[in-house]
Specification:
Strand content: 5-15%
Largest sheet: 5 strands, parallel
Shape: globular
Number of strands: 7
Number of helices: 33
Structural class: mainly alpha
Radius of gyration: 28 Å
Strand order of the largest sheet: 2-3-4-1-5
Distance between the termini: 30 Å
Length: about 700
């Protein structure tokens, strides 16, 4: 079962900024001009200069110019270039259905008019250059905007250097000083901690000197502004003078900008208490955001009491070291990449080793305790948590698989993540971690055998039968030799799916039902549910009554356990079986409800299949115009998930019949017009409203 997918990103919405944007008019205008004539623009500049904020503002200002939208992909949390293609594809909502997700990505973008922003590329420069080159060659209407401390070196690249904000002369009139972007930024951030702060004749010269001391670097200005929470402006200026030791205005000697930012972070670090300094350093382990419970679990101890962590986090937020974010799951905290990198420099080797083990243990337990395949009321919450924690889980896997002593832990964690990888379509990434772990943990064991069947399952989903079968055979041999009653039914289930892929329908269903019997025997409810789903869908064509019985049982099981996400799939599977039995009213009721739910949670895989079935139902009722429109909407989604109804044989026959009947009834011209109109609307809310209301397309 594919219980959930990542969000609908193909038509991204506005990028939300957490604080106001100040200045950069000339850079914004220059970027817009360049992107009219050039297809690749790289914003370069030192750390902390504001490349990310500028890129996001460019994105927002140009959104209306790109009919297929704009998308920002943050790469600062990605620590390996091997996952670059899958990460960008996932941000677009694409499921990697093959061994080369970059090819899928380029194919999907080939006819799109879209602006893609790749943010923080410098640590993945060669990989980003290769990816961007492939996109530009294969998608002629795409534009790409990159932020990096270095250029990519790709043919046709245009470069826009992002300078520090202009600073005023302290001797200028107050009104002129206040107009400078560096002063406007300081004033804006200062007012957030000292309400009513403004530049006037009394303080203008001091603010101008401060902007000069910080050389107009936005991050340095923001770090300084928060000190006004506890200091007067003149006291802040004295601290900067004492700490930075920057020569007075007019001197020929100046600090390079990167030294100024470094000195400002040194200053912020010195202003922290020793426990705050330690927490800053330890939180640098997290490439993604972190909640309070995780910070306590991983960072407490050795000089930080668990009860202190909340207050220490509050102190770091006050000093702008941490940024707080409010999500549905609660408040989370993150660091800008510059600040995170600085904090990591303060971790001592012994402290880093101890922190590594706590980090690994925490994420092993988090992943094992939040399996998405389990039928529990918090099923959706589990998925959303794993989605938020994915950058940190990746870091844990990298730590595990980087040392022999934790390779088995990494393999177990990667295996458990299948219940996230499969529904989100992160198949290439899932196999990447599994195969690294399998190479390291080569001795026969239950952990290895589990990883083998998981890797085989993901390989089959990608169509990689040659890669799947040796893994599956090794896992099967281990299960038989050890008599492992919990492992064996999973291996048999994957063997059943392999039989279906090979075209042996009867054998496929026999193996699925054998797996079901074995899962029942050991009371593995999650295993039972998955077997029921596959038996209901794959069995719907050649034994509809038996498929319907499996679907009814799955739906009852999901409702009993209040597993809302899996319930959508149960409704889909039962709806397909009901359709095969000729009960169109039951099929429409089930599938429409599933479509409405899966649309709300942005589950494209389930929604795509629901649209397909709703098209059949419309055609069977004589509404061929609506059938053609919905087939078009489904077609666009099939493309987005890199699949087609012909790949799922329980869809193939009915799809062809529906399309042929609609074409004959409407004629080629009207059929094509309705089909294309549906395809154009498939990724916006129009199609969802029509599914919910049941109105004519």
């Amino acid at each position: 079962m594919r219980p959930f997918t990542d969000g609908d990103h193909a038509r991204p919405g506005p990028v939300k900024e957490v604080s106001s944007f100040v200045g950069r008019r000339s850079e914004l205008a220059a970027a817009r001009r360049i992107l009219v004539r050039a297809r690749l623009l790289t914003l370069t500049g030192t750390g902390g200069v504001g490349k990310t904020r500028l890129a996001r503002r460019i994105c927002e200002s140009l959104r209306a110019a790109y009919k297929d939208g704009v998308l920002v992909v943050e790469l600062g949390t990605l620590e390996t270039g091997d996952l670059l293609g899958p990460t960008v594809a996932a941000a677009l909502g694409l499921r990697d259905q093959g061994p080369d997700p970059t090819a899928l990505l380029v194919d999907y973008l080939s006819d799109k008019r879209m602006l893609l922003i790749l943010d923080n590329c410098e640590h993945l420069l060669p990989d980003c250059a290769r990816l961007v080159d492939r996109i530009l060659r294969g998608a002629p209407r795409m534009r790409v905007l990159v932020t990096s401390r270095q250029i990519l070196g790709v043919y046709g690249e245009q470069v826009l250097a992002v300078p520090s904000l202009p600073v005023p002369d302290p001797g200028s009139p107050a009104r002129e000083i206040a107009r400078h972007d560096s002063v406007r930024l300081f004033t804006d951030r200062a007012a957030s901690v000292q309400p009513g702060f403004a530049v006037d004749a009394r303080n203008a010269a001091t603010v101008a000197r401060l902007a000069q001391r910080l050389e107009g670097i936005p991050l340095a200005i923001e770090l300084a502004a928060v000190r006004l929470r506890t200091l007067r402006l003149d006291g802040l200026m004295r601290e900067l003078d004492d700490f930075l030791e920057v020569p007075v205005a007019g001197s020929a000697v100046t600090l390079p900008r990167h030294r100024t930012l470094r000195a400002t972070m040194d200053w912020s670090y010195r202003l922290c208490s020793p426990p705050e300094q330690r927490l800053w350093a330890r939180l640098s382990m997290f490439p993604g955001s972190v909640d309070l419970d995780t910070a306590e679990a991983v960072c407490a101890g050795d000089g930080i009491a668990c009860a202190e962590v909340f207050d220490l986090i509050a102190g770091l937020v006050d000093k702008s070291v941490l940024v707080s974010e409010y999500a549905e799951g609660g408040t989370r905290y993150r660091m800008l990449e510059c600040i995170r990198g600085y904090g990591g420099e303060w971790l001592q080797p012994e402290e880093r080793r101890a922190l590594r083990l706590r980090y690994i243990d925490h994420y092993r337990d988090l992943v094992s305790g939040h399996r998405v395949d389990e039928l529990v009321p918090e099923q959706l919450d589990r998925y959303l948590l794993l989605q938020r924690e994915q950058p940190n889980v990746r870091a844990a896997l990298e730590l595990c698989l980087g040392e022999p002593d934790t390779a088995v832990v990494g393999l177990e964690t990667a295996s458990t993540m299948w219940s996230f990888s499969l529904p989100t379509g992160s198949l290439t990434e899932g196999r990447y971690w599994l195969e690294r772990g399998l190479d390291l943990a080569s001795a026969p064991s239950h952990s290895r055998a589990t990883a083998l069947w998981v890797d085989s399952m993901l390989a089959l989903r990608q169509g990689d039968v040659a890669g799947a079968m040796p893994r599956l055979e090794e896992s099967h041999a281990f299960a038989l030799s050890t008599g492992d009653e919990r492992l064996l039914p999973y291996v048999i289930r994957i063997s059943g799916l392999a039989a279906y892929v090979a075209g042996d329908v009867r054998r496929g269903l026999e193996l699925l039902e054998e797996s079901l019997v074995l899962h029942r025997a050991v009371d593995d409810v999650a295993g039972v549910a998955l077997d029921l789903y596959f038996a209901a869908t794959y069995g719907s064509v050649h034994d509809s009554a038996r498929a319907a019985a499996h679907g009814e049982e799955l739906l009852a099981l999901c409702e009993e356990r209040r597993a809302a996400v899996s319930r959508g799939y149960a409704q889909l599977s039962l709806g397909i079986a009901a359709w095969s039995l000729g009960d169109q009213d039951r099929a429409e009721s089930l599938v429409r409800e599933s479509a409405a739910f899966t649309a709300r949670i942005n589950d494209r895989w389930c929604l795509t299949q629901c649209l397909e079935v709703l098209a059949w139902i419309a055609g069977a009722g004589g509404d061929h115009a609506r059938a053609a429109w919905v087939l078009g909407a489904a077609h666009a989604l099939w493309q987005a998930v890199d699949s087609s109804p012909t790949r799922l044989w329980y869809h193939a026959v009915w799809h062809e019949r529906c399309a042929d009947q609609a074409r004959r009834a409407l004629g080629d011209r009207d059929f094509t017009a309705a089909f294309r109109d549906g395809a154009r609307h498939s990724l916006d809310h129009t199609v969802l409203d029509r599914i919910d209301s049941g109105s004519r397309a």
